[in-house]
Amino acid sequence: MNYSLSPLGDQAIVITVSNEINEEAQTKVRLLSQLLDDQQPDWMVEYIPAFTTVTIFYNPVVLSGNKKLPYEQVKENIAELMTSVKTEGAGNPRTVEIPVCYGGDFGPDLEFVAEHNNITPEEVIRLHKSGNYSVYMIGFAPGFPFIGGMSEKIAAPRRDSPRLEIPERTVGIAGKQTGVYPIETPGGWQLIGRTPKRLFTPEADIPSLLQAGDKIIFKEISESEYYNWKEPHEDEDS
Amino acid sequence: MKIVKDGLLTTIQDLGRTGYQKYGVIASGSMDTFAHRMANILVGNKENEAVVEVTLLGPVIEFEENTIISVCGGNLSPAIDQKPIGMWKPILVKKGAKLSFGKPKSGCRAYIAIAGGMDIPIIMESRSTYMRANIGGFKGRALKTDDTINLRKTFSFEAGEQNYSEMDWGIANDIIPNYSSRPEISLIKGPQYDWFNRESQQALFSTPFKVSSQSDRMGFRMEGESLSLKESQELISEAVAFGSIQVPNNGKPIILLADRQTTGGYPKIGQVASIDLPVLCQMKPGEQLTFNPITLEDAQRMWLKQEHSIQLLKRSVSLKMKEELI
User: Fold this and answer.
1) Which residue among A89, A137, A210, B214 is least packed, with the fewest CB closer than 10 Å?
2) Which CATH number is associated with domain A95-237?
């Protein structure tokens, strides 16, 4: 696996496996994450996978046994680790459906995305529903999925200044990516709709509904469907 | 212990929710990790034990059992039963004693450690409060008036006149950080430093930046020279760290702190050296800082040196504790 290493401050190192977002980069990140989960090196505090990178947070004290700088030592340790990373076996992806009520108060930037791309808001919705999506990474906020595979015809830049509060479960667009804010948080994405589905459950063993690699289908629902929507397990109970 | 009166923002924090950032769960944890660790060491706790983080205007806390506490971090004029108490030292506190705070004299966050720790549930391997998601700490929120927290350990002391007694030893002054209201903060170049134009690179290290009022545990939004890229470029979102300085398109840098998100899509011009994070985190809105360049090498050397002295200090504190307290 080709990769490069660079520092993020004095206690983290970034492993970059690709210069662009694609399926191959995502698979490499997953394989590397699996390796780190299996090996749990004692100098590693934790790691954060992203689209094209895996960042490892390390403990400089554990790496300071010899005269070398901890950063030099961690580079050597990672080079050693990389020799045992697998090249296949990432498994079959799941498909998860996410209902979305587009526009209105739920999607205040739908018009902006339409104007930016010289198309109608209806066309933005149609294109957003019809992407061939997969989750490239979870990050930024608990359970927040960065979803790749969106049509470039509805791409839109981030806002110049992030909003201070975005309501939970809001669906947004930034560049060629789409995603969903699982909890209320500040953020700079263009907002186009909202889902009634919970993406983050802290009580669960794995708190995030989605994982890197999942296939996603966005299904349009009306406002009344939004308000009457129930989590699948709630249906079973009632 | 009982919260008789809540403060501005009083939360339970340990050293963070490690290991869940890969699910997008933020780390949280104490802002001033140095004061946090010292507070715990002084009462014989593990460094990671949960403490009470007090912000600017402190709470009033009544202890309903005998215990040992220490108060470290920013000087918010702590007092017991209206009498000023010393910081950075163990204090024997008797049942009925009331800890309160007054005028902020330096810094803005104080840390109260309690010997044996508090009875706070562990969620995702941490006791830290993550308020935005209502997770962890005390019911997922800041402490409020009339909240009662059980202590995991209590002590029996001899009856005496005073409701408390201070030990005559504590952390030496030369180890306590200088919580300046105009600090110089060491900064390592960030991963996208080279993306910024020369004027912005120079402004970063030669002009002051002010902590804006839109600042909290998640991050400090800074006001100062506008920072801009050589040419428009979109970053592929990647991990951020405690102290990462990201610059949105409006040119105003944001320093990411304890409640930071796990990843970010704005270019990072710098990374605050770990050794200077405690002083940074004690700054109040309206105060100014300047950034000094530091190499990764020097930042790591200084960190190792500090960790070494903390280990020595830990050993001597534990000897003292054995002699005098336990």
Assistant:
1) A89
2) 2.40.100.10
